[in-house]
Amino acid sequence: MNQMKPNSTIYAYIGTYTDEGRSEGIYIYRFSPSTGELEYAGVAVDVFNPTYLAIEPEHRYLYSVNTIEGDGTVSAFSINPHTGLLTYLNQKPSGGSKPVHLVVDPLSRYVLAGNFGNGSVCVLPIGGDGALGEMTSFIQHHGFSIHPVRQTGPRVHSVTLDPAGRFAVAAEYGADQLKCYRLEPSNGELIPSKVPTIAVVPGSGPRHFAFHPSGKWGYVINELSNTLMSYDYNAADGTITLKETHTTLPTGFTDRSHCADVQVDPSGRFVYGSNRGHNSIVIYAVDQESGTLKCIGHEPTLGKAPRSFTIDPTGQYLLVAHQDTDNVVVFNIDRETGLLHPTGHQIHIPVPVCVKMVAISN
């Protein structure tokens, strides 16, 4: 759990699709940890389809993918420490079509982005002023899998760094693989790690990957098969080994549903995943010795298509963005059980698909 400094303000940044003409860009809200309420602060309009966001570890800058068919881009913004508002800095090509995910390394040196449209990953350096520089690495994936529509070619749905920022895992949705890389700190090059490709069960559609804060385990949520796979992780050489597979849906549910996001509680005691269709958050307890998971419940998210969700810096709340019902709903996290409880608070935003939160010292 993050330790908040005195006189800090928590801000929530919400990425959206703007191409429908209903959304203006990245919405910014002040968040009250005492009540769970969100108060509108502003919107950054200098960006097209900012569907996924990442905040630099020192909380000075925010980066967004611009999900565009053809030549995708990544945008950089500075964060005003007094208001939380964003100022546009610059934009750089992502090297591929439809970038949908990005991450900033722990030392604020590089942004890594994944392109869904053509299945590739890129690295962009961060300048002293937070602006993005020219690409330092680009890797094109290849392959396909069994789904006749969604897996006709490579499609990267996420790229995630381990807690030390040394190794990255790209969820290769189109080819049913996890691609593993080492990030060279001196020049921003991505280099295939010791075991560069991990096969996933055909038809799974690996979407998002998350590391346990201990650095011992990792989890991938699979969109098409509605499963969550847990892995043992060797931080010394970046290798991952499959441990177990769990369904994300309750017994007896047979309607259409597709997973979206996976997040690990900052304490490392719980793992959460979102189900679009069942419209729920699945909750797993983590055995702290073995890392094995146990499903302990499903919480209805009070909206349709829970795309992305996040846990606030205090570890007390979980916020869910619903793409199809234009709402972000706030849940309280029971710190003992990991179960979720609606706070009664929500906000309405056009096409929200990503929520990121940060505590900024004033």
Automatic annotation (TrEMBL):
Domain of life of the source: Bacteria
Annotated Gene3D superfamilies: YVTN repeat-like/Quinoprotein amine dehydrogenase
GO cellular component, one term: cytosol
Pfam families documented for this protein: Lactonase
A Gene Ontology molecular function term of the record: 6-phosphogluconolactonase activity
Family: Belongs to the cycloisomerase 2 family.
Protein's UniProt name: Lactonase family protein
Species assigned in the record: Paenibacillus cremeus
